[in-house]
């Protein structure tokens, strides 16, 4: 459970203490994309090579699809099958994905980093 919390909060995969992003707020637009170059505690290089985070786009896509599926299942249970396939579902799902996209962006980058550098 602590690993999951460290991924969600954006901690270093090696020491689990350092911050990956410069700002803890994903909605701070001026610093949303800023990643520290190295961990302040264990000196892990967060940017090992050019294009390292391209694979994180697949993780972000998977998160978005899973979230959309969850929204669809919840709307189907709450409102019935025919009501969940209408324009309201598409609009609500689109708005929620737009609002949560900075969170998905950060989670995908942190998860990608953890996949390659998780301590043993």
Features:
single chain; 120 residues
Tell me what you see in this structure.
By secondary structure, the chain is an all-alpha fold. The chain has four helices and no strands. The longest helix is centred in the C-terminal third of the chain and has 31 residues. It starts with a helix and ends with a helix.
Structure summarized in a few sentences:
By secondary structure, the chain is mainly alpha-helical. It is 56% helix and 0% strand.
Q: Number of helical runs?
A: 4
* Main sheet attributes: strand count, strand direction, barrel closure: none
Q: Total number of β-strand segments?
A: 0
Helix fraction by DSSP (H/I, runs of at least 4): 55-70%
SS-based class:
mainly alpha
- Beta percentage is under 5%
Mean pLDDT: 84
> Which stretches are low in confidence, meaning pLDDT under 50 for 5 or more residues running?
none
Q: What is the overall silhouette? A: elongated
What secondary-structure arrangement, pairings included, does this model have?
Blueprint: H1 2-9, H2 56-79, H3 81-84, H4 87-117
Helix pairs in contact: 2-4
